[in-house]
Design a protein that fits this description.
This protein is α+β, with helices and mostly antiparallel strands. It has eight helices and 13 strands. A four-stranded antiparallel sheet has the order 4-9-10-7. Strands 5-8-12-13 form a four-stranded antiparallel sheet, with no helix packed on it. The radius of gyration is 20 Å and the shape is globular. It starts with 35 loop residues before the first helix and ends in an 18-residue tail after the last strand. It comes from Physcomitrium patens (Spreading-leaved earth moss). Residues 1-87, 288-310 are annotated as: Disordered.
Length: 310
């Protein structure tokens, strides 16, 4: 798994994979925030990937696909909208609704995350391609699911009806971990568990740990994006890798789950994965090299007891 070096006293870092704008404050710098114009006008054109929880101001790399005045912003937005075909736009719209906004549209969602495809296609909502959901067919949905390389969706047929769900990434609290995901019962099931994030978020991560923010879980991958069999869980642009000490976390009662598309998820403890469970934290360097990262001298080391740990 690369040359990730272990910390002498144990150090950690934190991961997510969305966003490029600077955080508003240290306490909120790793919260997922998607541009309002993108959300409201084009149905969340971004595929909100699984690694946006835990660290980083998610969504800030996504630019509204149109709107927002004259000139550069408008032109770039129009080009983005023109470039997106109907299948991609449908997939992105379904991702946002099934992960975050089902209740906003009155969709009945089961506790395992499934909704009726027929109900989804009744919504009077346009995708980023400007096509109403109600103009799409069940076959369009199947095509969008089949094309999605990260396997974000699951389908099932029951009593003659087709259902769809997002496999992970939810912020909808009625979706239950035990119904949506498979519980990890042994550390051997996930020999590698790594969260990817960005350097600008590390100060708050050292202080606060990995937070799920408005998501239901903190997300981890079972390897690096370029490795065989790793299809989801981390953005390829991640600069910092945080490896979880799975054995220690499970010994202390942390529940870990695996989604159908092989993303590792956890609620941590009260929504936080404390730094004492960080096994290795490394910075990615060119040509596949890695450099160990440590908290600054004024930050407590992950394995030291602090007032919050006691």
């Amino acid at each position: 798994m690369g040359s990730a070096a272990a910390f002498g006293g144990g150090e950690g870092s934190r991961v997510v994979g969305d966003g490029s704008t600077a955080p508003e404050s240290s306490s909120r710098q790793h919260e997922y925030r998607q541009p309002a114009a993108t959300r409201e006008r084009f149905g969340e054109v971004e595929h909100e990937d699984e690694d946006v929880s835990g660290s980083g101001a998610g969504g800030s790399q996504v630019r509204p696909s149109g709107g927002g005045g004259r000139g550069r912003g408008r032109g770039r937005g129009r080009g983005r909208r023109d470039a997106m075909d109907s299948t991609e736009a449908l997939g992105r719209c379904m991702t946002a609704i099934l992960r975050h906004r089902a209740s906003d549209y009155g969709l009945e969602m089961q506790n395992d995350g499934f909704v009726l495809v027929a109900d989804l296609l009744k919504l009077s909502k346009n995708t980023a391609a400007g096509i109403p959901l109600s103009s799409h067919s069940v076959e369009d949905v199947r095509k969008a699911v089949a094309r999605d390389g990260k396997r974000r969706f699951g389908l099932k047929e029951e009593d003659g009806h087709l259902y769809i769900r997002a496999n992970q990434g939810h912020s909808i609290r009625t979706v239950e971990s035990g119904q949506l995901l498979s519980l990890v019962t042994s550390p051997s099931q996930i020999p590698v568990c790594v969260h990817g994030t960005y350097e600008r978020f590390m100060d708050s991560i050292w202080q606060e740990g990995l937070k799920r923010m408005n998501r239901n879980h903190v997300h981890f991958a079972t390897g690096l994006p370029e490795q065989d069999g790793v299809i989801s869980g981390m953005r390829g642009s991640a600069q910092v890798l945080i490896y979880l000490d799975v054995e220690k976390a499970m010994e202390d009662g942390m529940k870990l789950y695996v989604s159908d598309n092989k993303v590792v998820l956890t609620e941590g403890f009260d929504g936080v994965v404390p730094t004492k469970y960080f096994k290795n934290v490394v910075k990615k360097l060119p040509r596949g090299r890695e450099m160990p990262l440590h908290p600054s001298s004024n930050q407590p080391k992950p394995h030291e007891n602090t007032a919050a740990d006691v």
